[in-house]
Amino acid sequence: MRIYGDSVSGNCLKVKWTADLRGLSYQWIETSVLNGETRAPDFLAMNPAGQVPLVRFDDGRCLAQSNAIMLAFAEGSDLIPTDGYSRAKMHEWLFWEQYSHEPYVAVARFQLRYLGKNPAELEPRIVERGKAALKLMDDTLRCRTFLASDVFSLADIALVAYTRVAPEGGFQLDGYPAVKRWIARVEQALGIDPAR
């Protein structure tokens, strides 16, 4: 199995972390978005959307979209709750992450860190919605250990990817103490270095 991903992308890292946590055997193919490698004809033949992450299974079938890949990797594991309601809550967070979190927190990070913009150049709506996303997470995590329930799930892996690097997008986490504690728990569960 091959995973095509860009190591600077939280969407790619969450797929890698899930594969590693599950002990899956794969070859990581570093695929730079900034260098246009996702627009190369051979890559577009596998994923016409021209996006990473992308997994190419041993049988040649390909699957894109980070949360879909994570779900495929976690099938039958404890990362997907068996209780119907908790499983639905996990999906709720996965959908929310791609619609209400990633487009603001990750986009702000990309613009500041990789495009060289300064915080004053960010569109105010991006900053406002990024802060709203972090506040919703903080409010939730004040009374819960993990996002979907008190059990670690794919929801936590999906959301920690960009939340842990939110300061690179100008979002200081000191105002979100429950989020900071949760990040530490998830990093420990994933065995990833907090400094990276």
Describe the structure.
- The two termini are about 25 Å apart.
- The protein folds into two domains: about 70 residues, 3-Layer(aba) Sandwich (Glutaredoxin), CATH 3.40.30; about 110 residues, Glutathione S-transferase Yfyf (Class Pi), Chain A, domain 2 (Up-down Bundle).
- Helix 1 runs parallel beside helix 3, helix 1 packs antiparallel against helix 6 and helix 4 runs antiparallel to helix 5.
- Helix 1 links the parallel strand 1 and strand 2.
- The protein is built from seven helices and four strands.
- Strands 2-1-3-4 form a four-stranded mixed sheet, covered by helices on one side.
- By secondary structure, it is of the alpha+beta class.
- Keywords: Transferase.
- GO terms for molecular function: transferase activity.
- It holds the Pfam family GST_C.
- InterPro entries: Glutathione-S-Trfase_C-like, Glutathione-S-Trfase_C_sf, Glutathione_S-Trfase, Glutathione_S-Trfase_N, GST_C, Thioredoxin-like_sf.
- This is Glutathione S-transferase family protein.
Strand numbers in spatial order across the main sheet:
2-1-3-4
**CATH architecture grouping of the largest domain:** Up-down Bundle
Write the CATH fold name of the largest domain: Glutathione S-transferase Yfyf (Class Pi), Chain A, domain 2
- Individual helix count: 7
Number of strands: 4
Task: Extract low-pLDDT stretches.
Answer: none
Helical amount: 40-55%
How big a fraction of the residues is strand? Answer: 5-15%
* Overall residue-averaged pLDDT value: 96
Helix-strand string: EHEHEEHHHHH
CATH class (first level) name of the largest domain: Mainly Alpha
Shape: globular
Please outline the major beta sheet.
Answer: 4 strands, mixed
Briefly note the structural class of the backbone: alpha+beta
* Overall number of structural domains: 2
* N-C termini distance: 26 Å
**Rg, Å, rounded:** 17 Å
